[in-house]
């Protein structure tokens, strides 16, 4: 079966209209690209064709190269065309070098390969709202169809590098100002205007320009050298672990110094290397894993349609509740925020207001939009206004009896179809709903703080939650721009449970002699936003200890109990809020090491009878990373084996979006498979002999290691869901 095609339609005016067709976004599969070449050859052969217009079907030019073909390219299963075929033979020597002029008529989106096709045409006409960009670097590659050579010649080197390195598209209006498009028109006039423009070129009324040889936007060699130098310094600072942004700069530079043709060959060679790199494989895995979280067996394959959620209530206006309310009003949901008294209610409403105002300050929202958005929020002190809500999200403190009381009240006041969701991060949902008869509509909606910014939403189902309610919440999750992941009900769900050994491993190392600041440095260098100790400071010792207690109670055989934090708490240290935790903080929240922390570590050692291990006092960065993250992998294996997660890729997304695990390493399970189950098992087994149960490999890991199987391979028979 061919994946996509192009059609050619010649009008009485002598213009051939070539249309790219490959729903949903007209992506450029190899089939589409071969078909584009055939359509072009036909248009050039035919005497009744004077000029050509290229467009995309159904209001979308093209979303770029077909990412699903990457797997085939990486494994060699797909026959690739001969070297340089697309960028040189098709786009440069057929499209751009044609004896007949062509115009790209752009609506919707022209991204990646789509924009590269448009840039090979002799002019571009766009709608004001179309998105144009080269986002390839998000996937660990560089533009591969001439984009690194044409974009700098159309918009200048500086702007071209910015667009490629940030992967951010520009709208049609901005693209017009930059010179990337030649004219803006409304969608219904797009094709007719492009036809006229093409005929004007034939008649010499409009310039006929080959982008590849344009030089008026290029800086002098001296200036260009400075731009490249600045770009490289920025990349090394912001993304020290990534090679492909530097390769992108090299390829642009080759074209400027040695000419565009040499640039095209360098682009081709570099693309072929990068597409096979671990970074590209990891980022492509994350790309598909993120889109796959909404596929849940026996839930999303039953033909259920999400019901309309018109109004939502949020209970609790603290940090979490106000963040959730903010996320909802930002996506046009009317929200009722309920608190227990006037003072708390006002504070909650003010928090939402402040969240929205910070968007206005950053230029992400107009004052008018702010007022309209804030007006969607209403406060309440009782349940009277809950009689017509479609969903309630409870976000009060982690207190079982309080939550049980709230859910019993909700059952009385809310309509029978209303979804009853809790944002608990640790309490068993069966316990939360134990005083109700509505178990089929009770579900966890676990947001991460700050809720209006963090992209992950854990949807927690019990064995009684109805598939319809899950489908409804998946839909709300997507509408409020979160990546929803469906997980089973257990202590800590997926993210917090996988990562509870993260801080505990760090404390174990510190008590046995590893420098805590070296641990944070190694973990940050690995690609985490911050190390475990800086994270505990940020979250606050109170929350940290409360969460740790849940795991110590539920998994006593594999938790490491350290006294370091409780001892610091006794001295009124609580983390960043008190300006003293594992670090000292100044007015600007800048952290610096605190030599006093040593005394707490020494005291904790004497209490627990631990002595300094000379090997751990001189750990390499590689060993630090493995001793911190392999216990996380071990727990992730348990979560997977118990059926808490539907698939390993969901745990990858959870680790990246919930904890900031570096996406260019592919997520926790994907990264683990790059080390291999045998290796991970042997390391954990070796450490458990010295340090006990905390490192003991779980049964699932032992089985996979014995079989030499990847950890991510599907669990044949996931244990019955909790």
TrEMBL record:
<protein>
    <recommendedName>
        <fullName>3-hydroxyacyl-CoA dehydrogenase</fullName>
    </recommendedName>
</protein>
<dbReference type="GO" id="GO:0005777">
    <property type="term" value="C:peroxisome"/>
</dbReference>
<keyword id="KW-0576">Peroxisome</keyword>
<dbReference type="InterPro" id="IPR029045">
    <property type="entry name" value="ClpP/crotonase-like_dom_sf"/>
</dbReference>
<dbReference type="GO" id="GO:0004165">
    <property type="term" value="F:delta(3)-delta(2)-enoyl-CoA isomerase activity"/>
</dbReference>
<keyword id="KW-0456">Lyase</keyword>
<keyword id="KW-0443">Lipid metabolism</keyword>
<dbReference type="GO" id="GO:0004300">
    <property type="term" value="F:enoyl-CoA hydratase activity"/>
</dbReference>
<dbReference type="InterPro" id="IPR036291">
    <property type="entry name" value="NAD(P)-bd_dom_sf"/>
</dbReference>
<dbReference type="InterPro" id="IPR018376">
    <property type="entry name" value="Enoyl-CoA_hyd/isom_CS"/>
</dbReference>
<dbReference type="InterPro" id="IPR006176">
    <property type="entry name" value="3-OHacyl-CoA_DH_NAD-bd"/>
</dbReference>
<dbReference type="InterPro" id="IPR006180">
    <property type="entry name" value="3-OHacyl-CoA_DH_CS"/>
</dbReference>
<comment type="similarity">
    <text>In the N-terminal section; belongs to the enoyl-CoA hydratase/isomerase family.</text>
</comment>
<dbReference type="InterPro" id="IPR008927">
    <property type="entry name" value="6-PGluconate_DH-like_C_sf"/>
</dbReference>
<dbReference type="InterPro" id="IPR001753">
    <property type="entry name" value="Enoyl-CoA_hydra/iso"/>
</dbReference>
<feature type="domain" description="3-hydroxyacyl-CoA dehydrogenase NAD binding">
    <location>
        <begin position="311"/>
        <end position="489"/>
    </location>
</feature>
<keyword id="KW-0511">Multifunctional enzyme</keyword>
<keyword id="KW-0520">NAD</keyword>
<feature type="domain" description="3-hydroxyacyl-CoA dehydrogenase C-terminal">
    <location>
        <begin position="492"/>
        <end position="585"/>
    </location>
</feature>
<dbReference type="GO" id="GO:0003857">
    <property type="term" value="F:(3S)-3-hydroxyacyl-CoA dehydrogenase (NAD+) activity"/>
</dbReference>
<keyword id="KW-0276">Fatty acid metabolism</keyword>
<dbReference type="Pfam" id="PF02737">
    <property type="entry name" value="3HCDH_N"/>
</dbReference>
<keyword id="KW-0413">Isomerase</keyword>
<comment type="similarity">
    <text>In the central section; belongs to the 3-hydroxyacyl-CoA dehydrogenase family.</text>
</comment>
<dbReference type="GO" id="GO:0008692">
    <property type="term" value="F:3-hydroxybutyryl-CoA epimerase activity"/>
</dbReference>
<dbReference type="GO" id="GO:0006635">
    <property type="term" value="P:fatty acid beta-oxidation"/>
</dbReference>
<dbReference type="Pfam" id="PF00725">
    <property type="entry name" value="3HCDH"/>
</dbReference>
<comment type="pathway">
    <text>Lipid metabolism; fatty acid beta-oxidation.</text>
</comment>
<keyword id="KW-0560">Oxidoreductase</keyword>
<dbReference type="InterPro" id="IPR006108">
    <property type="entry name" value="3HC_DH_C"/>
</dbReference>
<dbReference type="GO" id="GO:0070403">
    <property type="term" value="F:NAD+ binding"/>
</dbReference>
<dbReference type="Pfam" id="PF00378">
    <property type="entry name" value="ECH_1"/>
</dbReference>
